[in-house]
Design brief:
It is built from 7 helices and 10 strands. With 253 residues, it is α/β, with parallel strands linked by helices. It has 2 domains: 4-123, Fructose-1,6-Bisphosphatase, Chain A, domain 1, CATH 3.30.540.10; 139-247, D-Maltodextrin-Binding Protein, domain 2. It has a 5-stranded mixed beta sheet, sandwiched between helices. A 5-stranded mixed beta sheet has the order 7-6-8-10-9, with helices on both faces.
Length: 253
């Protein structure tokens, strides 16, 4: 039987995305005002709905104060109300997202990533599988504005193609959708940046880990989680080895 948490994550991410589209359609004097309104309104919506639907669960949100009650809770929703605020603030850009994930007793058990500007939500209850890989060089999703030097060096080592795009959720979902083959990040993130994308990627059969191949852990006292790898499973060993060589380390995998 499918857990109702899968549908809750998907419906909340989708609804928050619709709210953000309405926010984006308003007239704002500048991009900063649009960013602030989007972050604040999506956060308030998600927290209010989770309080109503799952009153016994804790919430960790990028836009909210960190409540230490989450550290003694069995269930914690980890949300990023607006991932990719820069892209959201720029008219016409579609590479921003909403993240909603559920952590329960040590594991991510449900999650969804909404891509509102393209009318798509990908969730752990979808049964989605990654399409077959196209021929050609490995395609690495990379930040359009802040490409990490690690990934640039890795692309040279692998003869890979860099595919620039916006938010972390969009980059991870590009692997899920078969638009790229891997997303490697080493420039600093927090749990809300990756929890929902990782939950969805795992459900689709992808490899997810830290750069050294060790597991990604969530709902820790310090939510800083600086690096991750999301990739097609058949590429994982080779990619982790290349990362280790680039960093002068030995992969845990």
């Amino acid at each position: 039987m499918t857990s109702p948490d899968h549908s809750t994550a998907a419906s909340l991410a989708t609804a928050a995305g619709e709210l953000l589209l309405a926010v984006r359609a308003r007239h704002f004097d500048d991009a900063d005002a649009r960013k602030a309104a989007g972050d604040a309104e999506a956060h308030r919506f998600l927290v209010a709905r989770l309080t109503q639907l799952r009153p016994g669960d804790a919430v960790l949100s990028e836009e909210g104060a960190d409540d230490p009650v989450r550290l003694v809770s069995d269930r914690v929703w980890i949300v990023d109300p607006l991932d990719g605020t820069r892209e959201f603030s720029e008219p016409g850009r579609a590479d921003w997202a909403v993240h909603v994930a559920l952590w329960e007793r040590g594991e991510l058990v449900a999650g969804a990533v909404a891509l509102p500007a393209v009318g798509l939500t990908l969730g752990t209850g979808d049964g989605h599988r990654v399409p077959a890989r196209a021929d050609g060089p490995v395609r690495l999703a990379v930040s359009r504005s802040r490409p990490p030097s690690l990934v640039q060096a890795l692309s040279v080592r692998l003869g890979a193609q860099l595919v620039p795009m916006g938010s972390a959720g969009v980059k991870a979902m590009s692997v899920v959708r078969g638009e790229t083959d891997a997303y490697v990040h080493g420039g600093g993130q927090f749990e809300w940046d990756s929890a929902a994308p990782v939950a969805v990627a795992r459900a689709a059969g992808l490899h997810t880990s830290r750069l050294d191949g060790s597991p990604l852990r969530y709902n820790r006292p310090d939510p800083y989680l600086p690096d991750l790898v999301v990739c097609r499973p058949e590429l994982a060993d080779g990619l982790l080895s290349a990362i280790a060589e680039q960093m002068g380390q030995h992969p845990s995998r």
